[in-house]
């Protein structure tokens, strides 16, 4: 049996050190000095509280089941929480809170009005009174500091005026001046008005004097009857300063008015001085018409005046909503401009190099994506291995450097006029500029025409106009419709001499500049496509192919590509598609022209490019699979191979088909068949021999584009073409050896080349080939030196200097302090969702509990109220009953008495 | 009705005069006349033997002249009917008790029947397509009737009449349709026809034949590709066989006949193209028929030794023999290695070869030096290969590197020997690989490095370049599925880049930022001081544009 409560209490008091052996006085003193006493007291209070709690078992909630054995998986927090549960306390707290909030609400239900305490922090229990006071003070001062209205004149004087004995110190002088000025002003106004005012003011002061709302009275100073209080003095001063301020403002306004008036009369004055009459003012509107915005001019000239005004009003209103113009950049000096341009070009070049290496140019995110796409082959789930590579790598994009988008001037050197469109292209830069100026004036002329006449002529009208123009005096028309397809364009330039087509193109571009009409952008895009079609058409069809014109058109295409990249790209791709579908193995001259165009319009060095990559493939396919039987086939091949080298002039990529084709061609063209097999390239024999077999001496010449189509006239010309082809191929090999000198497999690539060239040299021993021997020898020398260098620089490959891969760990991931109540979900989203769901559940439970408690509280309160009401009623009822009974009793008594009296009387 | 048309045509050619309408009327009349005559003759034959002479009349009416261009098919059909009827009534059956004149009549009829059959054969050989087919149908019909109604005649019929038919079919002039008809209607339908056809063909092909004939033989034989499985029950008979003939119902004898037929063809004098064609169908059409595939050995080894594409094609058949029949082929890998020549990667059998080579080199027990030789040789070839071949080679190498880690020195070789390192540093090095060595174990390839593939990392096609790059990245992937890389072509690659239609690109491609001053001409050359540099100067230097 446990000891009794009293004994337990005593024991616990002793244990916690609340009671103990009495301390000596010395000790007490010492404790008081060191502050240990206070600490002891605190400790004792805490201990007492703990003891009290322990001895009041009803305050603490005992867990329903006995606590279980300690186990690692048990939640430590929850057991602690149950031990500290004190339902009584929480319940009473909740009750208290409800009484403060819910009960208030209940009581104030169905009530209107009442007082709301809006003092700051009044009902905020978290604030101490000191804090509250401090906060209020801060707010008040802030409010004062804020300048609420620009007409509020008070504060400065109120705040910062220094006084001494009621006198203003700082602004004494100024006040005086003001005062004197005021006096003067009054004087100027005249006597009677002054009197009047004085009187009025006096009355006003008399009326309001007791309220203490002072208005300055100039006469007040003259009556120093009684000593003024400090506050009064202050107010006076304030009022005074306000008054003077007003006066000053008014005087200034008057002055301004007067000055304006005088300014207006000044011309008249001059006139009077000169003694001449002013001519009637010219109407400004007429004069400005040319220079002003045409829209506005039209508006001003419009018949409806009221309409104009209305529009004007509208404009004004719109203007109020206009954004404020931001300051523009400083105008740059010439050097800065040059420097900037150089900087820009450098950046573009850097970007190009980056694209060449297949890196990303602008956005970092793409970079990551890109890496992902390259790393995909790690992915086990990849179904098709090849797609990982076959997928087009992300093509780099770069902000287009559009210079001519908003400039009306087309790239300067694209502007051709008749004189320099002709074939002698010796116009210097200066000339060119002049010409372009001319052109602009032409354009303005055109615009004038447009303004005077109708708007843009309809297509049919224009074409007839064109015809008319051309037939009448052979001059070009100024306006051309933008053609919709190639046939229309051909119609348009029918009869135009080929050197003038450039001008036509340029005029179409100028006339349909995107700034002139919103539709023009699309039209010009279409026009760019037509131009591309025209290039291939020209190369295919034109007997007298003008390369100057083709070059011009290609440059136009290039310039259009900057503004309409998609149109141009799609058009080029369409041509390439046509090539690969219809004639992959016999390229037409037009196709070669298109491929040449691609080499100038697009960066062919890019790792991946939507146009140049397929163009490469087209060339490679042609070189790899075409049948070379005739000389013109070989000429086409020579063109394609040289195009390829030009494509790779910067990036220096390797093309197996190039080497195969060139070596094959050389084997086929050589005067004697090579004796042994010379390399790993597959040899293809021509069906009929195209070997060199000249009777006379032949000299190589420069190949012509025409050789692709035309067949040589006689056998001598044929031999000449053959030897030129040989020399061209040899020089191509020369260039290729330069390009690929750095490649690690240079030796493997060029050893067969060397063998074949040697063979060729042997077979060129005859005197007839003496002219061709030198280039072969020089190429051989160069290749030999390159081979030597390649041998010197050859090292075993070291491709796998990677950091060794970590061995995949199969150890499960251990959690250091594993807590079974926590969720270690690797899927973050799911974990988050679960957490939220648990939160919702908990909150919902809490809210329901609270609501239930609220409801019971409300019910209890209602019951209490009802009981109160009932008991009151009961009380009242009882009182009334008692009263009545009283009265009845008295009446009964009276009656009894009366009765008795009467009986007594009897 | 083709016969009718032919008849009318014939008439037309005879009587060319007269107005068109009249002529047509006359022609129709004539045609009707002929039909009625034929009908009359036919019914008379049916009435009794005294009208048997009508058969001779009909045969003469068949009008098989030298050209056999315009046989009267109506007559042929009616004759067929007549003979069938006669056979059905048993007139052809010769009984020993029969009277002398009966025998004479039977013999006469048999003679007429043979005559008729000969006429049909002539039509088959020389006639136009329609009559050829009709003649084939009719003669097969007669065969059927003879077998069913004349007891004990089947062996004789198959070995004589049918032999003639097969020969006629094979040798027919313009016989494509006839052969197709024969194949679809008879050869594939009826198993006994096929059986006997095999026999006839093997006999026929025992002698040297012209290449056209061999072609058609190959066509006919390769059409029979549904090899009966073991325990197959033969049901589709053209003519129900006699119970005594066991062989026609056994799978083995069928196969044996087919095997003989094929062997006869293979032993014949084949052209290169035919040989290739046969090799191409070897695995799927020929080998299944063979109960003793080793009989193919000579043909296959001969083909394999022939070199070039023929060798490539022979590989698969040879592999089948090696695998199934324990064929021992000495120097197999040396031979395989020798197949890696300049044309291999450009050949259209490339993917076929790679599939097989993948199988041959799959073993991890092959010596590393051998594998290295294959790798190095392929790398060499890749320097002159089309992109579609490079795309196969590199993953193939990757797989080999994975299974033969010793070979990976070819990608990464650290030289630990100080002296050697210094020497290389000073003088560079040659490729230790000897491309002319025939023996793949002695090429020294394992001492070499794959500079070729490293060079191909800067291939002009970005996808090829990135595939070539896998050998310099970490080998994290277990294995590349070679099948995914095999069948790429230029056309496929171009289509992949360009798409089939106008679909807008996701990103705007970059445009060269600088517009060149000149492309073809010497425009504004003075500005650059007369020296043509800048983009495109290379082209302008080589070519003259005027």
Automatic annotation (TrEMBL), chain A:
Coiled-coil portions: 234-261
GO biological process: maturation of SSU-rRNA
Biased composition (Polar residues): 74-87
Bias (Acidic residues) ranges: 207-222, 361-385, 401-414, 426-450
UniProt keyword annotation of Lipoprotein present: no
Main location: nucleus
Compartment(s): Nucleus, Nucleolus
Superkingdom in the source lineage: Eukaryota
Record InterPro entries: Nop14
The entry's keywords: Coiled coil, Nucleus, Ribosome biogenesis, rRNA processing
Residue spans of biased composition, Basic and acidic residues class: 129-142, 223-233, 343-360, 887-906
Pfam family for this entry, one: Nop14
Region (Disordered): 1-44, 66-95, 116-142, 179-233, 317-450, 883-906
Record flagged with keyword Nucleus: yes
GO CC terms in record: Noc4p-Nop14p complex; small-subunit processome
Function: Involved in nucleolar processing of pre-18S ribosomal RNA. Has a role in the nuclear export of 40S pre-ribosomal subunit to the cytoplasm.
Assigned protein family: Belongs to the NOP14 family.
Protein name (database record): Nucleolar complex protein 14
TrEMBL record, chain B:
Biological process according to GO: ribosome biogenesis
GO cellular component: Noc4p-Nop14p complex; small-subunit processome
Superkingdom per UniProt: Eukaryota
Residue stretches in coiled coil: none
UniProt cross-references to InterPro entries, sorted A to Z: CCAAT-binding_factor, Noc4
Domain CCAAT-binding factor: 311-468
Region entry Disordered, spans: 1-21
Family assignment from sequence similarity: Belongs to the CBF/MAK21 family.
Protein name, as recorded: CCAAT-binding factor domain-containing protein
The organism of origin for this protein: Penicillium frequentans
């Amino acid at each position: 049996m446990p000891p009794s409560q009293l004994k337990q209490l005593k024991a616990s008091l002793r244990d916690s050190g609340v009671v103990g052996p009495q301390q000596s006085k010395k000790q007490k003193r010492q404790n008081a000095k060191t502050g240990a006493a206070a600490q002891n007291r605190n400790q004792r209070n805490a201990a007492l509280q703990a003891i009290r709690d322990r001895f009041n078992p009803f305050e603490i909630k005992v867990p329903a089941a006995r606590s279980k054995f300690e186990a690692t998986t048990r939640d430590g927090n929850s057991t602690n929480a149950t031990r500290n549960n004190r339902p009584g306390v929480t319940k009473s707290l909740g009750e208290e809170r409800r009484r403060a909030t819910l009960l208030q609400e209940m009581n104030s239900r169905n009530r209107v009005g009442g007082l709301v305490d809006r003092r700051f922090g009044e009902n905020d229990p978290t604030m101490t009174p000191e804090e509250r006071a401090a906060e209020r003070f801060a707010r008040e001062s802030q409010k004062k500091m804020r300048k609420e209205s620009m007409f509020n004149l008070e504060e400065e004087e109120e705040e910062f005026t220094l006084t001494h004995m009621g006198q203003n110190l700082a602004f004494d002088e100024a006040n005086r001046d003001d005062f004197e000025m005021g006096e003067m002003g009054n004087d100027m106004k005249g006597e009677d008005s002054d009197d009047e005012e004085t009187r009025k003011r006096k009355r006003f002061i008399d009326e309001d004097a007791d309220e203490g709302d002072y208005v300055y009275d100039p006469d007040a100073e003259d009556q120093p009857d009684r000593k003024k209080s400090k506050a009064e003095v202050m107010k006076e001063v304030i009022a005074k300063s306000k008054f003077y301020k007003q006066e000053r403002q008014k005087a200034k306004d008057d002055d301004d008015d007067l000055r304006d008036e005088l300014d207006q009369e000044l011309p008249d004055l001059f006139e009077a001085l000169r003694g001449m009459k002013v001519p009637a003012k010219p109407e400004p509107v007429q004069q400005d018409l040319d220079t002003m915005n045409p829209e506005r001019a039209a508006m001003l000239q419009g018949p409806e005046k009221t309409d104009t005004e209305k529009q004007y009003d509208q404009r004004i209103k719109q203007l109020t909503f206009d954004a404020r113009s931001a300051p523009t950049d400083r105008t740059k000096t010439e050097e800065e401009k040059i420097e900037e341009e150089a900087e820009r070009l450098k950046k573009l070049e850097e970007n190009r190099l980056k694209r060449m290496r297949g890196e990303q140019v602008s956005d970092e995110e793409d970079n990551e994506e890109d890496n992902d796409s390259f790393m995909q082959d790690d992915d086990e789930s990849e179904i098709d291995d090849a797609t990982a590579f076959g997928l087009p790598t992300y093509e780099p994009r770069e902000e287009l450097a559009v210079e001519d988008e908003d400039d009306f001037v087309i790239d300067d050197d694209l502007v051709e006029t008749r004189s320099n469109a002709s074939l002698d292209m010796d116009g210097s830069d200066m000339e060119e500029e002049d010409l372009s100026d001319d052109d602009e004036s032409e354009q303005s002329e055109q615009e004038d025409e447009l303004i005077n006449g109708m708007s843009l002529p309809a297509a049919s009208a224009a074409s007839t106009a064109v015809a008319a123009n051309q037939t009448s005096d052979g001059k070009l028309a100024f306006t051309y419709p933008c053609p919709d397809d190639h046939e229309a364009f051909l119609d348009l330039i029918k009869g135009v001499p080929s050197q003038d087509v450039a001008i036509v193109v340029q005029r179409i571009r100028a006339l349909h500049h995107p700034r002139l009409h919103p539709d023009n952008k699309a039209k010009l895009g279409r026009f760019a496509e037509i131009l591309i079609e025209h290039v291939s058409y020209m190369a295919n069809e034109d007997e007298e192919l003008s390369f100057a014109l083709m070059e011009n058109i290609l440059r136009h295409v290039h310039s259009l590509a900057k503004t309409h990249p998609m149109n141009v790209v799609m058009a080029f791709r369409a041509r390439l598609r046509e090539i690969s579908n219809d004639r992959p193995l016999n390229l037409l001259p037009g196709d070669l022209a298109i491929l040449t165009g691609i080499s100038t319009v697009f960066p062919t060095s890019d790792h991946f490019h939507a146009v140049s990559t397929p163009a490469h493939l087209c060339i490679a396919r042609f070189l790899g699979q075409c049948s070379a039987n005739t000389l013109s086939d070989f000429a086409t091949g020579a063109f394609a191979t040289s195009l390829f080298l030009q494509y790779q002039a910067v990036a220096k990529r390797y093309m197996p088909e190039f080497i195969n084709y060139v070596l094959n061609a050389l084997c086929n063209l050589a005067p004697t068949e090579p004796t042994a097999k010379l390399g790993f390239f597959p040899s293809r024999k021509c069906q009929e021999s195209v070997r060199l077999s000249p009777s006379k001496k032949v000299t190589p010449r420069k190949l012509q584009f025409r050789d692709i189509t035309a067949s040589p006239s006689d056998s001598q010309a044929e031999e000449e073409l053959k030897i030129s082809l040989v020399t061209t191929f040899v020089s191509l090999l020369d260039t290729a050896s330069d390009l690929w000198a750095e490649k690690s497999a240079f030796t493997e690539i060029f050893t067969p080349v060397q063998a074949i060239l040697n063979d060729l040299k042997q077979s060129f021993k005859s005197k007839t080939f003496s002219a061709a021997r030198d280039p072969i020898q020089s190429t051989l020398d160069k290749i030999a030196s390159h081979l030597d260098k390649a041998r010197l620089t050859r090292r075993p490959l070291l491709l796998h200097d990677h950091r060794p891969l970590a061995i995949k760990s199969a150890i499960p991931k251990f959690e250091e302090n594993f807590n079974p109540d926590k969720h270690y979900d690797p899927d973050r989203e799911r974990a988050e969702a679960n957490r939220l769901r648990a939160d919702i559940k908990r909150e919902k439970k809490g809210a329901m509990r609270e609501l239930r408690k609220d409801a019971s509280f409300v019910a209890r309160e209602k019951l209490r109220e009802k009981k109160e009401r009932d008991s009151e009623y009961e009380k009242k009822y009882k009182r009334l009953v008692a009263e009545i009974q009283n009265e009845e009793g008295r009446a009964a008594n009276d009656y009894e008495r009366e009765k008795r009296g009467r009986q007594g009387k009897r | 009705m083709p016969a009718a048309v032919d008849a009318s045509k014939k008439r037309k050619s005879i009587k060319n005069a007269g107005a068109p309408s009249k002529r047509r009327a006359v022609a129709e009349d004539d045609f009707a006349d002929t039909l009625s005559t034929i009908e009359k003759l036919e019914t008379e034959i049916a009435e009794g033997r005294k009208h048997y002479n009508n058969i001779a009349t009909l045969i003469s009416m068949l009008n098989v002249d030298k050209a056999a261009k315009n046989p009267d098919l109506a007559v042929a059909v009616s004759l067929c009917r007549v003979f069938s009827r006669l056979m059905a009534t048993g007139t052809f059956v010769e009984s020993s008790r029969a009277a002398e004149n009966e025998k004479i009549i039977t013999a006469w009829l048999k003679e007429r029947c043979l005559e008729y059959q000969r006429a049909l054969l002539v039509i088959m050989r020389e006639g136009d397509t329609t009559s050829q087919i009709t003649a084939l149908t009719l003669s097969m019909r007669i065969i059927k009737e003879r077998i069913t109604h004349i007891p004990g005649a089947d062996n004789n019929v198959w070995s004589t009449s049918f032999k003639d038919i097969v020969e006629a079919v094979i040798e027919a002039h313009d016989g494509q349709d006839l052969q197709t008809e024969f194949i679809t209607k008879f050869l594939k339908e009826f198993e006994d026809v096929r059986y006997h056809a095999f026999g006839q063909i093997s006999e026929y092909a025992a002698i040297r034949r012209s290449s056209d004939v061999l072609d058609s033989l190959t066509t006919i034989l390769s059409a029979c590709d549904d090899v009966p499985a073991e325990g197959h029950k033969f049901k589709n008979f053209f003519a129900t066989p006699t119970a005594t003939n066991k062989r026609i119902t056994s799978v083995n004898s069928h196969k044996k006949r087919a095997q003989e037929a094929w062997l006869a063809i293979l032993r014949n004098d084949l052209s290169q193209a035919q040989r290739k064609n046969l090799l191409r169908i070897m695995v799927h059409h020929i080998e299944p028929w063979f109960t003793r595939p080793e009989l193919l050995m000579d043909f296959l080894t001969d083909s394999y030794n022939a070199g070039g594409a023929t060798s490539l094609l022979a590989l698969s058949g040879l592999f089948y023999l090696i695998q199934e029949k324990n064929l021992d082929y000495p120097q197999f890998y040396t031979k395989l290695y020798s197949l890696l020549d300049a044309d291999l990667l450009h050949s259209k059998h490339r993917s076929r070869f790679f599939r097989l080579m993948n199988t041959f080199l799959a073993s991890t027990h092959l010596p590393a030096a051998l594998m290295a030789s294959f790798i190095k040789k392929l790398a060499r070839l890749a320097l002159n290969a089309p992109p579609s071949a490079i795309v196969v080679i590199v993953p193939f190498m990757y797989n080999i590197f994975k299974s033969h880690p010793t070979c990976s020195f070819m990608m990464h070789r650290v030289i630990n020997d100080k002296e050697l390192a210094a020497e290389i540093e000073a003088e560079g090095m040659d490729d230790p690989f000897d491309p002319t060595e025939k023996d793949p174990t002695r090429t020294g390839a394992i001492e070499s490095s794959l500079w070729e593939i490293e060079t191909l990392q800067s291939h002009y096609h970005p996808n090829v370049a990135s595939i070539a790059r896998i050998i310099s990245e970490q080998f994290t992937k277990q294995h590349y599925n070679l099948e995914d890389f095999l069948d790429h072509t230029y056309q496929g690659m171009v289509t992949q880049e360009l798409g089939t239609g106008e679909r807008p690109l996701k990103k705007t491609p970059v445009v060269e930022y600088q517009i060149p001053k000149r492309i073809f001409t010497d425009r504004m050359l003075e500005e650059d001081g007369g020296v043509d540099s800048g983009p495109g100067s290379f082209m302008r230097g080589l070519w003259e544009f005027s």
